Amino acid sequence: MDSAITSIARAAKAASRSLATAPRSVKDAALLAMADALVARGEAVLAANAEDVARARAAGMRPGLVDRLTLTAERVDGIAGALRELAALPDPVGEVVRGSTLPNGLRLKQVRVPMGVVGMIYEARPNVTVDAAGLGIKSGNAVILRGGSAAAGTNTVIVGVLADALATVGLPRDLVQSIDEYGREGAVELMHARGLVDVLVPRGGADLIQTVVREATVPAIETGVGNCHVYVDASADLEDARRIVLNSKAQRPGVCNAAETLVVHAAIAEAFLPLAGRDLAQAGVTLHADDDAARLLGVPSVPAEEEDWDTEYLSLDLAVRVVPDLDAALEHIRAHSTGHTEAIVTSSLASANRFTRELDAAALIVNASTRFTDGGQFGLGAEIGISTQKLHARGPMGLAELTTTTWIVEGEGQIRE
Amino acid sequence: MDSAITSIARAAKAASRSLATAPRSVKDAALLAMADALVARGEAVLAANAEDVARARAAGMRPGLVDRLTLTAERVDGIAGALRELAALPDPVGEVVRGSTLPNGLRLKQVRVPMGVVGMIYEARPNVTVDAAGLGIKSGNAVILRGGSAAAGTNTVIVGVLADALATVGLPRDLVQSIDEYGREGAVELMHARGLVDVLVPRGGADLIQTVVREATVPAIETGVGNCHVYVDASADLEDARRIVLNSKAQRPGVCNAAETLVVHAAIAEAFLPLAGRDLAQAGVTLHADDDAARLLGVPSVPAEEEDWDTEYLSLDLAVRVVPDLDAALEHIRAHSTGHTEAIVTSSLASANRFTRELDAAALIVNASTRFTDGGQFGLGAEIGISTQKLHARGPMGLAELTTTTWIVEGEGQIRE
After folding, report:
1. Does A113 contact B at CB distance below 8 Å?
2. Neighbouring residues of A121: CB distance < 8 A, sequence distance ≥ 6
3. What domains sit in chain B, N to C, each tagged with a CATH number?
4. What's the pTM value of the predicted model, to 2 decimals?
5. Could you give the CA distance from residue B182 to residue A140 in angstroms, rounded to a whole number?
6. Within 10 Å of residue A31's Cβ, how many Cβ atoms?
7. What is the distance between the alpha carbons of residues B179 and B5, in angstroms, rounded to a whole number?
8. Looking at CA atoms only, how far is residue A346 from chain B in angstroms?
9. How far apart are the CA of A152 and the nearest CA of chain B, in angstroms?
């Protein structure tokens, strides 16, 4: 007999079939119905959320995490608004990626089609529940959601609201299902639901990613660990460098595209580090500096240990290192990069070209903040996560990354000689 | 201390860096040097191969497999010719996939870059050793090869020849390495070489694929299991259907895009099956028929068991089933498809549209042979395998599928508000 997770995955697979051939108008109607329902039933959502928040506080959850967990009427409106924006985006399904007529007359086209069933494992952020459901529906996929247990009450209500909304436009409720009630065992079973789950997107810390890598037999996409560097080259414009470093570190320190290490060319360190040190100290950033940097920063710092170069702080901390030249900078970044985002500030075309050609990451940025690596910022409309792997999707994953392709071949009796 | 496989993978990673930024001219020169060297040292290759073949024969290897293992002077010329054709193909690296200027003035482009290190596990076919090395080099990747043990002697000589040729154009020998000598343990270690091997391409039977799915912690692409169907619709042109069925089954029965099941609409079964039965019997095909088909085929058949519908024969065997309508055909194919290639023969536009919209496979073919699902036939120039998974690559995998992408972002001091 099927386990609960297998039954859920089978129901998702069956539901995904009716969505795969649904025209855009039906999918967009579903998204708008979901948005309306969330607002209409906002009180029930907020009541469930208030209970989750109270329980989390009582359990001593850190304030930053409590903030991510908390919903307000304004936040619910924002989440509903994101669904409406999704409805306005082009449908990725049916896009012809390439095509040609072969010498034997066969017409060949490669067409985007839905994956089928997308599994999503993520932290206690109720907005991700809605975003993932919306991106799934728009890209023609059923979704199976496993959110952080701290948000389980909120998620249960939200998933009910979304499923009801799907039913009002004639789509199966099973397109959006939660497995929160099955705990960690349920999540591991989801990782093993081979043939039923077409792709698994884990979104969370290094522990979750490691578990998925070790356990998953379904195809998975790694997301989100970002030990991002900003390298200030010898020829950098000092004011650009100050603004980019401060923004990359401090504009929102808890996210994966925030900078974690500042690497400075020795030739500019004496001019730049006192300025940067003052900016960063004023913003409340703790600096973990190597000896050269500590001497030049002009503000207090703590000594950088070897492990600082590999730490994704996700907080107001920044490692700082002075290097003798561009080669040493590239070498440092290569050794410690997680392949997310690396930025250079320079006025040298040669340095910019070497940086973007010789490093290997999802995003390589010249003279701008690391914080731009984001689906919304890149104009992809929305994102389900930022892939740091090389297979299938690299960088911000939007709607197209939730599809696969089929080759359609049309002939009139051609056979192979 | 590093194991032998880890050392090899580290050397491959280091070597891949020098290739990643090599211009097309260097890579093409390498491919031509590899082709020339194979022909020049053909005698050594053939001598090693003769020993492998003699050992395989003595061990009782099946003739079909011995044929795949066997090299001749002509086959070596053909293999070298394939390298020269690769040199003539466009370079996938550097291709700009998409790009735009964002409202804040940032210039964004998504550019193809090499994966880095490609691991390849395959059967005892020496031509795959050369094809994989060639595709790897052209796409800017280092390759680590694990061929079937029966071809180990041949592969050792070939890898030596290819590495020597790389050295003559100034590229590192470590771009092409074999781990044949480390046996199965070596292959499993390769599956675990996370962070060093960027993608693993297993090419072989269901057993190998299962092992990779279970064991691999490096990203892997499934290839090649094809339980392909040909469905003959009520309105099919009888002569087209005869030729397509015969070609799909018998033109080369041992490959993954050969048909394994014939599904026939009841309304045309009486007219079609006697014709198809004669064609297939003359070609030496054993028919595994359901009751209705057995009655109509007009030639001897064996009863189809339930397991026949799921068997990839890879031989002159064909399962045959009569269905009452298109819905039943779609249902049968959905239940037994491995997602490789499904073909319909029909003159009905509605049937063709339902077939291509409602089924889910790498290739969906209307009025042509299943045998066309092939990188060469599709005009991709060459293929490293046929993916039956949905992530990253689906269907024939050519040079582009051996690359990933990087987002390059250029600005003049932009920060995020």
Report:
1. yes
2. A146, A187, A190, A200, A201, A202, A203, A204, A208, A212
3. 4-222+389-409 (3.40.605.10), 228-372 (3.40.309.10)
4. 0.93
5. 45
6. 27
7. 7
8. 10
9. 30
Identify which of A366, A367, A340 has the alpha carbon closest to the alpha carbon of residue A353.
Answer: A366
Residues of A in Cβ contact (< 8 Å) with B367: 410-414
Chain A residue with the nearest C-alpha to that of B349: A410
- Which residues, numbered 252 to 311 in chain A, qualify as contacts with chain B under a Cβ-Cβ cut-off of 8 Å? none
From A221's Cα to the closest Cα of chain B, the distance in A is 9
A138: distance to nearest CA of chain B, Å?
17
Residue-by-residue pLDDT tens, chain A, 417 positions: 689 999 999 999 999 999 999 999 999 999 999 999 999 999 999 999 999 999 999 999 998 889 989 999 999 999 999 999 999 999 999 999 999 999 999 999 999 999 999 999 998 899 999 999 999 999 999 999 999 999 999 999 999 999 999 999 999 999 999 999 999 999 999 999 998 999 999 988 778 888 888 888 898 988 878 999 999 999 999 999 999 999 999 999 988 999 999 999 999 999 999 999 999 999 999 999 999 999 999 999 999 999 999 999 999 999 999 999 999 999 999 999 999 999 999 999 999 999 999 999 999 999 999 999 999 899 887 788 899 989 999 999 999 999 999 999 999 999 999
What does DSSP assign to residue A234? Answer: T
DSSP output for B90-128:
PP-TT-EEEEEE-TTS-EEEEEEEE-SEEEEEE-S-HHH
**C-beta of residue A120 within 8 angstroms of C-beta of residue A142:** no
Chain A positions touching B391 (Cβ under 8 A) are 199, 219, 221, 391-392, 404
CA atoms A173, A179, A182, A187: torsion sign? positive
Contacts across the A-B interface (CB distance below 8 Å): 198
User: ipTM for the complex?
Assistant: 0.93
User: What element of type H or E holds B6?
Assistant: helix B4-20
Q: Which of B362, B391, B404 sits opposite A199 (nearest CB)?
A: B391
Residues 6+ apart with CB under 8 A from A62: none
Nearest to A46 by CA among A79, A15, A20: A79
In chain A, residues 222-241 whose CB comes closer than 8 Å to chain B: 237, 239-240
- Spans of chain B, pLDDT less than 70: 1
- Shortest distance, CA A255 to any CA of chain B (angstroms): 13
Q: What is the pLDDT of residue A379?
A: 86
CB contact under 8 A, A243 and B373: no
Q: Are residues A244 and B356, on separate chains, in Cβ contact within 8 Å?
A: no
Place of tokens 């705990």: A183
Q: Identify the bridge partners of residue B344 per DSSP, sorted by sequence position.
A: B231, B366
Tell me which chain B residues have a C-beta less than 8 angstroms from the C-beta of A219: 389-391
Residue in B17, B115, B366 closest to A410 by CB: B366
